[in-house]
Amino acid sequence: MTDFKELIANEIYDEALGLEIEEIKSMIERPADEAMGDYAFPCFRLAKALRKAPQQIAEDIAEAAYKSDIFEKVENVNAYVNFFIDRAVFAGDVVREISDKGSQYGRSDLGKDKMVLVEYSSPNIAKPFHIGHIRSTVIGNALYKLYDACGYDTLRINYLGDYGTQFGKMIVAYRKWGCEEELANEPIKALLGYYTRFHKEAEKDPSLEDEARETVARLERGAEEETELWKKFRELSLSEFNRVYAMLGIEFDSYKGESFYSDKMPRFLQELKDKGLLIESQGAQIVDLEDCGLGAAMITKSDGSSLYVTRDIAAAVYRKETYDFYKSIYVVASQQNLHFRQWKKVLELMGYEWEKDCIHVPFGLVSLSDGDDIKTMSTREGKVVFLEDVLNTAVSKTADIMREKKVEGVDIDEVSREVGIGAVIFQELSNNRIKDYVFSWDKVLNFDGETGPYVQYTHARASSVLRNADEADISAISGSGLSSGSIPNSASDSDSGSQAGFGANIDFSYLKGDSAYTLAKLLYRVPEVVVEAAEKYEPSMLTRHLVDIAQAFNKFYHDEHILVDDEKERRTKLALVAAARTVIANCLGLLGISAPERM
Ligand code: ARG
Q: Are 141 and 246 members of one domain?
């Protein structure tokens, strides 16, 4: 694809300006107002070197003869030079590129040979996997996909909360009141029940607390019976979590949780001591971070057992030593900001200069709007909404909507799953991640709003236009990158004009209309947006761009008659439809959402 900024920079370049091409390129802007051209070059900085008024410089540049015929016009407004790219050239460039790259469009090899770890989801075992967990799970998965698309090697880590005193309590409770069958049927609900009961009974009989402490100590020593039970709780919890991950289409490469690091503490305690960082405070060991306004980081409790931050230190070092990461990303709620700041500070004080490559990516809270009919369950802490219930509700509500709309010719079971779950994921990735938001069905499932269903519907609409086109048209626009099957009804692509791309079949000047041009411009920007979203750890940048693409496509569909009689015009417009469809599917894929052909 043509790098238009680079091309313009080359045109502008002149030794007298005293600027390198790269510098010129970085000064080129993209005006928000289309009347100001596609690209604009501000001349203020040149005034000194050229001893001329910026406005005069802009005028001179605009009047220079240009070698390239890609410009429709070049004009100056005050101290700016505005460049208007020839729309046919631009559209042709973009459409050809997308057709060539197909499912690879939007991907790059920016991160070649660099390793990025993404830690996300990380629920605590034997605890409900609830609506709050969706954020880390879905944002983390999208970040993994974005980094993967930028060519990085990646590792997806689920840092399970599988360590702590609660397991002592749970084991005691299970032995006293547990039931094998109940546990097997609904492990999380059963374990939570035992845990709750433990607290109730312990109020009457405090000796239970002692028993739990002894049990957890035995577990930490690796006593066989306790370890077996803990393993069982862990496996049963994981199989429940995996059910939800499967619904969301999410996978992990590593499930090394907190327990994996629990026996790796002595090395770090020694190191902290040697570096003079550890001090004793009421029997516990701490690192004093008062000077940097971060309080005290608790390293061991008075009974010598390790703490959350200590295990995170061990995990970070293990990951650096094992994977030599370029970046290690932690997708964890902003409630844990203090924890992560303390942890990074301790790593820094320990002299691990790579702590700067460890990045906490925080996000805000999700809450439910009143009157939402999601099943809730009471626990000690209040009401819990299981994520699995939310996803199932989304699917069944979507199926209802599809039946109401009398959608025909689709497998409602399958498509309502793709759309319902896609809707929940999309909503999750729609807002700036740091913002708190209120979950509401009306917003999530609105087929006309800025939602997942709307974007998926746009994809299905584009697919339907292509399905309704003649086979000969589809063959004619099947560029070299389009394998058979990537356009809905493309027959065999053996003789489908694949080597030539478009050639004489097409005339891109049919895409000079405003709505076609706006769409082409948005499609062009996708590879940049993918990189930006990854670098800012902000998948919502891609989500919002995708909504813009869907809206631009629908405007084009509305403004222009696509299946016209004129063969060239028809084929050219179909080529843009095919390109938009490819890009929408690719972007949905990067967000972890499927793109049904019909809905
Ligand atoms: N298990 C923790 C929780 O549910 C989240 C773990 C976050 N990751 C970390 N490396 N501390 O709150």
A: yes
Handedness of CA 197, 202, 203, 209 (dihedral sign): negative
The tens digit of pLDDT for each residue in 373-391 reads 555 554 454 567 889 999 9
Taking the alpha carbons at both ends of the chain, their separation in whole angstroms is 33
Give the chain's domain count.
Answer: 3
312 lines ligand 1 (CB under 6 A): yes
In angstroms, what is the span from residue 183 Cα to ligand 1's centroid? 25
Instruction: Select from 119, 122, 318, 328 the residue to mutate for testing ligand 1; criterion: most ligand atoms less than 8 Å from CB.
Output: 122
User: Nearest CA to 286 among 359, 356, 352, 342?
Assistant: 342
pLDDT tens readout for residues 129-178: 988 899 999 999 999 999 999 999 999 999 999 998 889 999 999 999 99
Q: What's the CATH number where 434 sits?
A: 1.10.730.10
Counting ligand 1 atoms within 8 A of each CB, the residue from 136, 332, 334, 363 with the most, and so the one to mutate, is 332
- Note whether residue 382 is domain-resident: no
**Tokens of residue 70, six digits:** 């890609």
Q: How far apart are CA 93 and CA 99, in angstroms?
A: 10
Q: Are 405 and 399 in contact (CB under 8 A)?
A: no
Same domain, residue pair 161 and 28: no
pTM: 0.92
Q: Calculate how far, in angstroms, residue 515's C-alpha sits from the geometric centre of ligand 1.
A: 46
Same domain, 443 and 500: yes
Same domain, 227 and 179: yes
Determine the structural domain holding residue 59 and report its residue range.
Answer: 4-85
- Of all residues in the chain, what percent carry a pLDDT higher than 70? 94
Which residues are tagged catalytic? 127, 130, 133
